[in-house]
């Protein structure tokens, strides 16, 4: 005898469906999209020389450090890796922005910088980087202190950051003073050779050339010691000097053992390759009866402020 099972299975399925024991489920998807717009970088915490006045070094260059913080919401690598950083240090009277023309008297610019090791730009979600650069300022960079030609100016640092999309931001530091530097260098030997007693050097002057190695025009203080040999002396006043190459009798000034200011008025140079100089001419009179010997002394040249 055959059994019929189909109606029983259909009945079980129907009961199960009614009781919620078994059902069929289907999934679908919805696409998503967002556009992240570019954010311009910003610059903050800009400093010049750690906020201190700049003091130059005569006849050479002086290192000045400039620092700042760059922030970009799209990540600091958008500037550090894909963009650019321009740092400028300039006298405020030249321009009000970093767009000055490079000139070692008034404007120093660079795109060379370093990300400070203490806060490197790590990429990814890192949004800030501290940057710094060191510029070499020449000794003739223009002063801005009270005694200078530009007492109402200061030296200002501006940092400009640009990202890969050329969006940019900038900020400037509070200005600092650049101090006046009065300095000189003297070349040439004042060696009068061999003279007999009761004679002068006549028209055979010795030349000592003064070079202005500071950043302001300079006058010169002259002082000297008596020339001596053992217990014998030729007074400093027997030496004469001037700014023109004339005979001993016509030289303008007698040397003094006290500092005496002379109006040499040596202007400030504007380039390291063309120094500003003034020649001085020297002669001596050997007194009658002077003991035969080799005499030596010291003449000192000091740079001082020139008012004219």
Mean pLDDT metric: 92
The ordered H/E elements are HEEHEEEEEEEEEEEEEEEEE
Beta content: 35-45%
Overall, the morphology is: rod-shaped
Helix content: under 10%
Distance between the amino and carboxyl termini: 138 Å
The total of helices stands at 2
Number of extended strands = 19
Task: Return the CATH topology of the largest domain.
Answer: Immunoglobulin-like
Poorly predicted regions are 4-15
The CATH architecture of the largest domain would be: Sandwich
Number of domains: 2
Return Rg in Å.
40 Å
Helix/strand structural class = mainly beta
CATH class division of the largest domain: Mainly Beta
Largest β-sheet summary:
6 strands, antiparallel
